[in-house]
C-alpha cells in the first residue's frame, strides 16, 4: 500500500518509511534529527522576511542551540556554508524539508476529538508544514457527527477504511489514557506506522512503528523543578521522601508500618541510625521487621 500522498499522486509515493531511510542510511544521529525542525522553523521565519543568507551564530541563536552543534548537524546534511557569507536560507529550507520528508503530503488522522483533539484539528500549522488532516475519529456517539475545523467527526468503526483510502501513515492519539493502547493497536493493525501520542500513558508497539510522546504534565513538572531552584526553595533535606510525598502515599506507608508493628511515624532522613538499631535491623526476620524493611516495599 502506497502512503504519504493524496490518492491522485499515490503512484509517485515511496513505500512506508521511505522518507526516513535516507537519514538512517547516512547515519544522522537521532539528536540531530530532533533539532532539524528547530532549524527549519528559524529558517522559515528568515525566508518570510526575505533574508538571503544567515551565519551559523545567528541561526543557532534563533534555534536555541550553540553554533558548534549547528555546524556539526549541518555537516550530516552535506551543507557546510560559505566562509564569510554563511548559509543560503532558501537552500537550507529545501534541504531540511527534504530530509524530514516534508516535500510531500502526509495525511494524518486524529483520534479522540475532545478539547485537545479540537485544538489540534484547528491548528493551522499542519498544512504549511506538509501535513493534511485526513479525518477526525471518535467513539462517543455524542461527538460523532459534529464538526471541527470544517471536518466531520467520524466513528472509530471507519478507521480501517479511512487509513486505506486516504493512504494514512501517521496517527495522532488524544484519547483518555485508558483507551489509548486499544486505539494504538487498531491504528497499527490498519497500517499506520507513526504515532504521535498525547495520552498520558506509555504505548506498546511492534518493531517498525515509531511513537513520539507529548506529555504536557511532565513538561510542567520539569518547569516547576526549575522554578523551585530559581526561587532558592530547595527541598528540606531533613525530611524523608515520604514526608514530601502525596497524601495517599503517606497513608499507604503508615498502613504498612502499622501492619509491621511500627509507630506510623517516619524517621527524618538526616537522623543517624544507631549501631544497635542497624544490627537489629539486620537480624530482623522477614515480615516481622519495622522501618528497616520499608525500602523494600515503598518506592524510592
Helix and strand layout, with pairings?
Blueprint: H1 21-25, H2 30-48, E1 53-54, H3 56-63, H4 67-76, E2 87-88, H5 89-100, E3 106-111, H6 115-121, H7 125-128, E4 131-138, E5 147-148, E6 151-155, H8 159-165, E7 170-173, H9 177-190, E8 194-197, E9 210-213, H10 216-230, H11 247-260, H12 275-283
Parallel strand pairs: 3-4, 3-7, 4-6, 7-8, 8-9
Antiparallel strand pairs: 1-2, 5-6
Helix pairs in contact: 2-3, 2-5, 3-4, 8-9
Q: Over the alpha carbons, how many angstroms does the gyration radius reach?
A: 26 Å
The biggest sheet amounts to: 7 strands, mixed
Give start-end ranges of low-pLDDT stretches.
Answer: 1-25, 266-300
Strand arrangement, largest sheet? Answer: 5-6-4-3-7-8-9
Q: Roughly how much helix do the residues carry, as a percent range?
A: 40-55%
Roughly what fraction of the amino acids lie in strands? 5-15%
What is the number of helices?
12
Multimeric state: single chain
The counted number of beta strands is 9
Given helix and strand content, the structural type is alpha/beta
What's the order of the H and E elements? HHEHHEHEHHEEEHEHEEHHH
Beginning-to-end CA distance, first to last residue: 48 Å
Approximate shape: flat
- How confident is the prediction overall: mean pLDDT? 79
